[in-house]
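Q: What residues go here?
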């Protein structure tokens, strides 16, 4: 595979001035399982008898992004259903592209400003007259964390009104919601969130809420409808 020829994203043209993405969604559903299977095979085959715990194996394969499982798919389906602009990476955040001066393809870091992905987001924001950007992420099932975290970097990337409207909507489904905790938002929303012209939020969803039978895709679609109401475009 020639990494130099990979653009690093796909996009969907939308009808409404809302852009949705999942920066860490691609490839997030298989890495941890692959590591565990590799460990099991190595132990059973006797090729590496000293590798007996997960943390030792992580020293060989030190990075995984399984916490964001299904966020790519959720963002894509919502974009199609609600006619939103959508841009999604086709590389995992652990990939590295030759001739690009970044340590990896983590699109939520400041160094990602040189990537084709960020450049295209700038173009879409102007071309589509984008007014709200949504970045979907996953988070671990830590008991003290809320079900949903809405990140807006202290309301510097989105208005308090928009954030509270979305938070109240989630609470209506019995979900606990926190603002900027445990994640205040990364470099992506910091760069593109320029209220009131363009507002940008990250929505972090606990991992346990995203598996088979979950209503989260439906609930997230409803959150987009709230944003449309906020923009008075319904």
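A:
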């Amino acid at each position: 595979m020639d990494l130099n020829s990979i653009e690093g994203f796909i996009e969907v043209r939308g009808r409404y001035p809302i852009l949705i993405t999942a920066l860490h969604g691609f490839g997030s559903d298989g890495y941890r399982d692959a590591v565990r299977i590799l460990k099991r095979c190595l132990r059973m085959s006797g090729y590496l008898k000293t590798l007996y715990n997960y943390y030792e194996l992580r020293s060989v394969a030190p990075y995984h992004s399984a916490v964001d499982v299904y966020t790519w798919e959720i963002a894509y389906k919502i974009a199609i259903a609600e006619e939103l602009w959508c841009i999604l990476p086709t590389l995992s955040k652990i990939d590295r592209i030759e001739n690009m001066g970044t340590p990896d393809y983590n699109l939520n870091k400041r160094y990602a400003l040189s990537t084709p992905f960020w450049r295209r987001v700038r173009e879409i924001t102007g071309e589509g007259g984008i007014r709200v950007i949504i970045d979907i992420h996953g988070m671990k099932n830590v008991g003290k964390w809320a079900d949903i975290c809405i990140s807006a970097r202290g309301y510097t990337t989105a208005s308090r009104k928009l954030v509270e409207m979305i938070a109240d909507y989630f609470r209506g489904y019995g979900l606990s919601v926190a603002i900027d905790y445990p994640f205040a938002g990364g470099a992506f929303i910091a760069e593109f969130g320029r209220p009131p012209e363009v507002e940008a939020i990250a929505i972090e969803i606990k991992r346990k809420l995203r598996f088979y039978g979950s209503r989260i895709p439906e609930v997230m679609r409803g959150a987009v409808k709230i944003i449309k109401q906020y923009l008075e475009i319904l």
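A: Context that may help when evaluating the design: The helical segments are 31-45, 54-60, 71-82, 116-127, 160-171, 187-192, 216-231. The two ends are 44 Å apart (CA to CA).
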